[in-house]
Every structure is written in C-alpha cells, then in structure tokens.
User: What shape does this take?
Amino acid sequence: MGQMTFDFESDDNEPKKSQGKEKQEVKPEVQEKKIDEKDIQSEVKEKEDTQSELKEKKETQPQVKEKKPKKKAKRKTKAHQLAKEQRDIPVSEFFEQNRHILGFDNPTHSLITAVKEGVDNSLDACEQAGILPDLKIEIGSLGKDELSIAIEDNGPGIVEENVPNVFGRLLYGSRFGSGKQSRGQQGIGISAAIMYGQLTTGRSATISTRISEEHLATRITMKLDTRNNRGNVERTEDFIWKDEEREPNEEGIHPEKFHGTRVEFAIKGRYREARPSVLEYLKSTAIVNPHAKIIFINPDEKVFLFDRGSPDLPKLPSQGVKPHPHGVELGQLMRMAHHSKEYQMGHFLRKDLSSMGTKSISDVLIKAKLSPYVRPQDITRLEAKALIESFKTTSIRTPTSGILVPIGPKLIKLGLKQVLEEYRPDFYTLPISRTPSVFAGTPFLVEVGMVYGGNLPKDQPVQILRFANRVPLLYQAGGCAITKAIQGINWRNYGLEQKKGKGTPSGPAIILVHVASTNIPFTSEAKEAIADISEIKKEIKLALRNNAKTLSKHLKKQKKRAKVSEKFDLVQKVLPAIAEKTASVVGKPVPNLDKVVAAIMDVVWIEEEVEFVNGQIEIEVKIINYRLRSANFKLRAEVPGHEIKEAEPRPGKREGNHVIWSVGLPTTESAKYKFTVPQGTRSSFEGLELWVEGIDSTNIIGAEAWTGVIDPGINEAMEAEKQGLA
Assistant: This one.
C-alpha cells in the first residue's frame, strides 16, 4: 500500500497572501491606481450636492401635491370637530338627562316609581332567600315638594363591598339575561330612584344592612357618580340595629334585627291618596303577594297594614329558560348556532332550545333537509331560514311548568278578598291560570280573576288591575296589551254594560289580569305597560272569556232570583189583600194561601245567612218548598279551605270537605240546616258553595246543580294544578 502525503502550510497567513496575489494578477490596474484625497473630497461633495438637489425636489413637489388634501381638510374641519366631540355616554348619564323614560316625569309619578323600585327589590331579595317578606315603607315631609323615603325589609342583607354597586350603578344586577322570572330584570330601578333623588334634592342616600347575627349592621352614606356610573361612598359606620317590629324585653329594649336592608333617600315629589297613588300601588301589591306583610306610614304618620294572608312562599323557578322554537327569530337562531358549544345540529336543537324531544328534532331536520350531524357553526342563512319554517309546521310541546311561577287561583282569590274587604263584593269568580304559551321564543302565562257587586260603583267603568310578574302597573293603561284585550271583548254577552260592544265595560266589577314571563315585553324602561303583542293579547282574551262565563252564570242566577223574589213579594202582598177583601165581602174566614202561592211560584227557595262570631263562622241555610209537590233531593255544602263542624241536623254523608244532607220537604214546608266553621274569619271566608243533586235545577233558586266538579269554570285551574302551575 502506497504512502499518502499531505502538504500542510506552516503559517496560516500565507494562503491569504497567495490569494491576494492571484487577485492582483487578474486586476493589476486596481493595484496600480493611487488614491488621491482631493478626488475623494470632490466626489463626496458632488454626491452631497446631488442628494441635496433631490431632497429639494422631493420637498417642493409633495408640497404642491399636498395643498389639495389640506384644502379638503379645511372643508372637513366641521366633521373633524364633531368627531372630536363624540364620546361614549355612560348609561347613568343618559338616564340622568332622560329620567322621564324611567317614570320620573312629574312629582306624583316620581314618588310612586321610587317606592315601587325599592319594594320590588325587597320582595325579590326575600323570596330568593326563602324568607317571608316583612316590609315597612315610610314617607315623610322635608319641606316644600321634598319627601323622604325609607324602605326596610327583613331580607338577607347586602355585603358591604357590594352596596355601592347595587345602589349606585345602573344596569347592574344578577337577573338580566338569567332566563328566570323575576320582578326586576334590568338592574336600573333602585339606582335610578336614588339618582333622581340626588338630582332633585342634592341629598345623599343612606343604606343600612346586616347579613347575619355574626356580623355587625353597617350604615353607608353615598352618592352616585353619573359620569362614571358608580357609587361614591362618603361615610361608613357600624351600628346596633334595633328591630322595632319585635316585642321589647322587660327593660323596654327592642332586640336586634338579625338581617335585612333599609334604604333612605330624598326626592322632589308629591304625595296624594287619589288614584294613582303609593297607597293604591301597595294595595295592589298586597293582592298578588299575599305572603308578604306590608306596613305603610304616610306623611301624616297614618299607618296602613296589609297583613300576611298566606304562610307559603311562592315557588322559585326551577331553571332558566331557553328560547322556544315556536317563537325564535332568524337572526337569533343564527347567532345561537354560531356560538353554540355543540358540534352536531341534533345536539344543538336539544340543548340550546327548549321543549325539543327526539321526535320533534327528527321532524324538524327532515322538513328542513338538514343532517343531524351538520355543525351548527357552519349553518347558512338559507339553512337557518329552513329551520325556522320547519319549526312553524312541527308540533312542539309547550314550555315546561318549572320555568314560570304563577300566583295560582287560590292565592289570587285570597288576595282579592283580603284587600277588597271594604267593598264587600257579592261574588268572586274562581281565578284561572292558563298553561304557558310563547312569543318570540319567550314563555309566558296569563292569570285572570274577577270580582262583582257589593259596594263597588255601578255606573262607572270597571276597575282594571294590571300586573306583570306580581308587580302592579298603574300608568300607561291605554297602551297596554291587557287593557286592549279587555276592550276587545263583547262584555254584553257576559252581563256587563258596554257601549256598542267595544271599549272598557261598566258595572260594579273588578278585573284582575296577571302576566308572568321570563322577559316581560314592556313598552319602556319605566315598566308600566305591556307591549301590544298578538300572542299575549290572545291568551289574555281566552282567559277572560273563560272566567267571564262564571260571572255570567252568577249574574243570570242573580237576575232569576231577583225576578222570583219580586214575583214572590207581589204574590205575598196582592193575594192576601184580595183574600181579605173577598172574605170580608162574603163573610167567611181568610183561607190558607200557601198552596196557591206554591202553584204560582213553583220553585224551591234556598237562602243562606252568614255570621262571623268569636273567631268562627256560623252559617244557616233555609230551604222553602214553593211547589205543589214534595221536594226530595241531596244538598251539598262546602266552605272552601275550611272543614264544617257541629252540623245540625247531622249530615248523612261526608265527601272530602263536602257535607251532604238528604232533604225531603212536603209542599209549602221549610227546613233549616245550621253548621259552624271553626277558626274562620271574614278575610279567610271564600264563600259558601251549595249544590243540589237529584232534582231539576231549573226549579231551584240559591244553589247549583251538582256536576261532579266543584265549579264548572274550574277545569282549567284544575288542569294547571295537575301540571304544577298553580
């Protein structure tokens, strides 16, 4: 194997020199050329002059071209100026300048609105905490047109750090967009009331709160910063909060208040007791919130008490609501689909919309020609439109019962009886709670009750009590869907006066309408009227007509009874006079006219007498047989909500709360049935229900024919109760 030889340079610089020489040989003139310093200077100066010349040209040329834009800018100076003046407007500042939108447009209205917002907050807080509400509202005079307002509750209280936000920021709250039914929705009310008070009086607001026995009560004085939409705390102090509504001890000291909130502020306002008024608002609130105790002290220090009528808190909605397919709109559906967390159309329909089951999902997708595996995020406008159209033609169940909480027939009637006791109405219809319906994807339900007779004015329009989520609506009645629905019914068909079958009916009656929804469509931020939405108006009309049938039957019975009574009075007066005259002429004794009266009348007369004695109700039912033959039938009696005791004669049978007697009366004979209801009061008395069985009811005055149902008009209410709605 031969030896390989490697020739390494000993000096590392040598190769570089070698390379340099080769380059010099290629371009020898470069090497030979001498560098003159003067030439370099001259060259540099020449370049500088050239650059300077170019710069001048560039500077001068654009200046000529930029003159036109500057002229244009001058013509746009106004637009630029206006642009600089534009800014974000805090919501609090907006409402400060437009407070009439929130109901602060005149002194009387402003006072009612301020009280309303505070009471709504208190009721919501108590119910959410599972506490039976005890509310105290005080209005005092601070001088000309200035009033003090204090609203106190026994709710859960408010964490100290959160007080400036709750009472000092508009559009702040927990219920907006929650999908749950509540009185407050926007987070504007109480902060707006304090803002109005501050604006008109310059006074600060004071909030006292305590959250538990383990915590001290805190008193915070604050004002609103409308520029920044926040509350500025001026002073904070701890104090001992005495509960003046609880009995004092032996030393006359009231115990401490365990928890609650009290808000105090001043406004420019005017107090009056003519309608509409604070007193009217609180009366109406008590009707639909019989679980609340409300104490009201007016500026003259007169105390009004609306005592608790029911120990039961309203049920809280079990869940938030999702849009219903029958009311969802195209843009809303597209937005929901594009932001959905589901990745299949079938899952999207089931989880992001309400009331969609396997069959309805399948039907909808087939009609829309969409695969259940299509990504909702990829849906096009045309595909979304096809879905909307398929919703309309597909049978989809109504919203579930747990999302809405009605007042219920029983509590509506109880509330009406408790508050309207001064009018002593003759008749209360059994209120109706409709099953939920839908508008624009939002569920809602309607409740209706009616009151007739007593001391209610006969020659005036009926009084309309409007409610939304248990809150009275006192203003803007003409633009409200409730009023329009009432005016759109021919009330003459149901026994009330009404000119040309249009407009508000007249007569001694009160009509109550309550709309419950997760999102009440108010006509304005003042929340005083419900928008004229066809779906809502239709449901109100259906409920009203159903309830009015019960009223119509009562009025017909009343008229029949009045005619029979008039006829009876005439017979009782005329026949004896004729008999006496004839007897004196012929010289014979006056004959017994009972059978003659019976032949003319041909009815079984039933009348009751009710007395309230020593905390119990004593009832007497008298039956007179004005027929030529004996009357044999069963008499059923019930006092709703109570058990009958000490009945005389002893009932032959009992069925639930019904007591049943077998009645057998010869012609012209009478009988009395007496019984007692223990622990019964005038406010708890819901009336006596009497039915007859085994006899033609056309010959009965004072009782209804037994049909196996407590009230012919109760069917819908009973169905609602089955579904857990009432």
